[in-house]
Amino acid sequence: MAELHIVEHPAIKHRLAVMRDKNTGFRDFREAVSDISLMLCYEATRDLPLRHYQVETPVSRAEVSVIGCEVTAVPILRAGLGMLEGALRLMPSARVGHIGLFRDEQTLEPVDYYRKLPANISQSRVLLLDPMLATGGSASAAIGRIKGCGCENVRLVCIIAAPEGVKKLQSDHPDVEIYAAALDERLNERGYIVPGLGDAGDRIFGTVF
Ligand code: PRP
Ligand code: URA
């Protein structure tokens, strides 16, 4: 069964406090999303394969290592875009794919509207980015699309997970490890994470006053 990694660090808890506060404006919210994403991606890429070689330092020869595989960051539009900058600060040479999904407000089912993934994604390690894992419908559908392109190495990086979403992912995609900053209590009757942080997309993009 896919492991759920709750990444514990004071700097992560600090950003999460900023994000949960309803009085935080979108500028500070965005900055906290970006920072926390970098830290979560740092943990999610800890075991990337390395390629080793030698360089001449000004003093002597040294063994050095660089990332030895393709990495692709795939934000789920729209809120996942807020995590992209942090992911790319950590992995500047990553490719980027996009998956557009939104959750139908009545059924809570994901609705597909866009997909553009790198051609060679089957040979890449994928970091799927979405701040909220609520029912798990959106992440599960996105992982299905990525696997449909032949990619077998996907990790989900989210900020807040609900137990319902974790359960769904562990059932639909037991090979996909989840990295999150917090596991919250539950979903409310409208499918929002409790206590959560509200609508991540609206808070990142400032679309609700
Ligand atoms: C949010 C969030 C996830 C989804 C999570 O997106 O960013 O994609 O909801 O819910 P789920 O686990 O129940 O599927 P939303 O559908 O609000 O779209 P947006 O990013 O365009 O605002
Ligand atoms: N999507 C969000 O943006 N927030 C939630 O709490 C649940 C789904």
Q: Would you mind describing this structure in some detail?
A:
The structure is a single chain. By secondary structure, the chain is an alpha/beta fold. The chain has a single domain, classed as Rossmann fold (3-Layer(aba) Sandwich). 33% of the residues lie in helices and 31% in strands. The chain contains 6 helices and 15 strands. Strand 2 and strand 3 form a beta hairpin. Helix 1 packs antiparallel against helix 2. The longest helix has 19 residues. The radius of gyration is 18 Å and the shape is globular. Bound molecules: 1-O-pyrophosphono-5-O-phosphono-alpha-D-ribofuranose and uracil.
Tally of helical runs: 6
Number of strand elements = 15
> Which range best describes the helical content: under 10%, 10-25%, 25-40%, 40-55%, 55-70% or over 70%?
25-40%
Order of secondary-structure elements:
EHHEEEHEEEEEHEEHEEEEH
In CATH, the topology is named Rossmann fold
> Roughly how many Å apart are the termini?
41 Å
Number of domains: 1
The CATH C-level name is: Alpha Beta
Query: What structural category arises from helix and sheet content?
Result: alpha/beta
* Biggest sheet character: 8 strands, mixed
What small molecules accompany the polymer chains? 1-O-pyrophosphono-5-O-phosphono-alpha-D-ribofuranose, uracil
**Overall form:** globular
